[in-house]
Automatic annotation (TrEMBL):
GO terms of biological process kind: microtubule-based movement; mitotic spindle organization; spindle elongation
Top-rank taxon: Eukaryota
Full protein name: Kinesin-like protein
Coiled coil: 374-398
Organism annotation: Adineta steineri
Length: 398
């Protein structure tokens, strides 16, 4: 069985106590691109063993330790096997909120690592090539269905899978599955009960192919904004949420109430972390830049506070941005979290790479206290009924 897989290389967690779980942080260094090679740039990042990386730049000389370092020659398959993502999938099936997010400057390999080379283009590749190129998300989806098939032989209670996909762009939330219906959506909820995006389209899916189709369409729908940096999606945060629901009535309880357990697997491809030069941005462009910075800056503030043993007990400003509200459970909350920090090895990226590694270095000190939340079936049904009524009121086609 794959649960006891030795591929959980960064398990078990250090001496945090049984009910704590540190945010896991892995680093992926992409190969030099053509431009960097043509300019004969020096590689300033060097892996040392599985866990450390040194920066030997013009201005800095530093060594960092992370859970795993993926050097330039690492394959998509290796990243899948050794990143710890399987543990996230397994725990999401067991009812935890499991989050994987990719952080790094534009062009550092976030989308390549999460989806595959060229993002949505991957789905148009020849089947054999595609399987090889698939990034973490399609591989995790494949693994999820494989595990659910295995589980369905042990238990008779079915799993239900619900998917939503949205992006935060300019501090506005847009639906990536159903873009026509999306004005900017609102976030509801609280730090205590969790936040959610109101009226975000959610669809039940039954097969892996259905889920991959949603991923493909969502990628195609990601905002296209002209921008001085190469990547059109470099300024939006994309969030795919896969909810795994199981009826657990009778499991260790004497209550006759029907209970469900809802795990969640969340993937976030963050906007580029680079500082946008103000001279490039005018008028509308300027507000976009500021707002993107607002979500990323707040994420940075929250990570800093949470990684500091003293500040962590105080106020964490989750509410200050859309992104941090939606990631509140994942950072310092009740979920489990994996961060993938993507960096270029080229000397021209020294400052951005160093900034990414420092950021990642703080994130690894964040402690979560994972718990499984259950809900009575009645609550779930009532909530769904409310949602249906609301959709009818708003004349959505059902
Ligand atoms: P980001 O999403 O961070 O802006 P991308 O994932 O789009 O960056 O990567 C930029 C370019 O570099 C793409 O052409 C991508 O295919 C390529 N690339 C990124 N990481 C790797 C890698 N590990 N191996 C080969 N090519 C990569
Ligand atoms: Mg990208």
């Amino acid at each position: 069985s794959s649960t006891g897989d030795s591929a959980y290389r960064n398990d078990p967690p250090e001496d945090l106590g049984p009910d704590k779980d540190r945010v896991r942080v892995v680093v992926r260094v992409r190969p030099m691109n053509n431009r960097e090679l043509e300019r004969n740039e020096r590689s300033i990042l060097h892996g040392e063993g599985e866990n450390s990386v040194t920066v030997q730049g013009a201005q800095h000389n530093r060594r960092f330790t992370f859970d795993t370092i993926f050097a330039i020659e690492s394959t998509q398959e290796e990243v899948f096997h050794y990143s710890g993502i399987k543990r996230l999938v397994d725990m999401s099936i067991d009812g935890y909120i499991a989050t994987c997010f990719a952080y790094g400057q534009t062009g550092s390999g976030k989308t390549h690592t999460m989806i595959g080379p060229g993002g949505a283009n991957i789905f148009r590749m020849d089947e054999n090539v595609r399987i090889k190129c698939f990034g973490l998300v399609p591989r995790a989806i494949n693994y999820l269905f494989q595990r659910l098939r295995e589980k369905s032989q042990e238990t008779t209670t079915p799993y239900y899978i619900r998917v939503s996909y949205c992006e935060i762009y300019n501090e506005q939330i847009h639906d990536l599955i159903n873009p026509a219906h999306s004005q900017s959506l609102q976030i509801r909820g609280s730090v205590e009960d969790g936040f959610y995006v109101e009226n975000l389209f959610q669809t039940y899916i039954e097969t892996m192919d259905e889920l991959l189709t949603i991923l493909e369409e969502g990628e195609l729908n990601r905002a296209m904004a002209s921008h001085n940096l190469n990547d059109t999606s470099s300024r939006s945060h994309a969030m795919l949420s896969i909810q795994i629901e199981q009826d657990i009535s009778g499991e260790g309880t004497t209550s006759t109430e029907q209970m469900t357990r809802q795990g969640k697997l969340i993937f976030v491809d963050l906007a580029g972390s680079e500082k946008v030069k103000v001279s490039l941005s005018k008028g509308k462009q300027l507000t976009e830049t500021n707002n993107i910075n607002k979500s990323l800056l707040t994420l940075g503030t929250c990570i800093s506070a949470l990684s500091d043993p003293v500040k962590r007990a105080g106020h964490i400003p989750y509410r200050d941005s859309k992104l941090t509200r939606l990631l509140a459970e994942s950072l310092g909350g009740h979920g489990i979290t994996l961060m993938i920090a993507c960096v270029s090895p080229a000397s021209s990226c020294e400052n951005e790479s160093l900034s990414t590694l420092r950021y990642a270095n703080r994130a690894k000190n964040i402690e979560n206290a994972p718990i499984v939340k259950t809900d009575s079936k009645e609550n779930v049904i009532n909530r769904l009924k409310r949602e249906v009524r609301k959709l009818k009121d708003e004349n959505y086609e059902l």
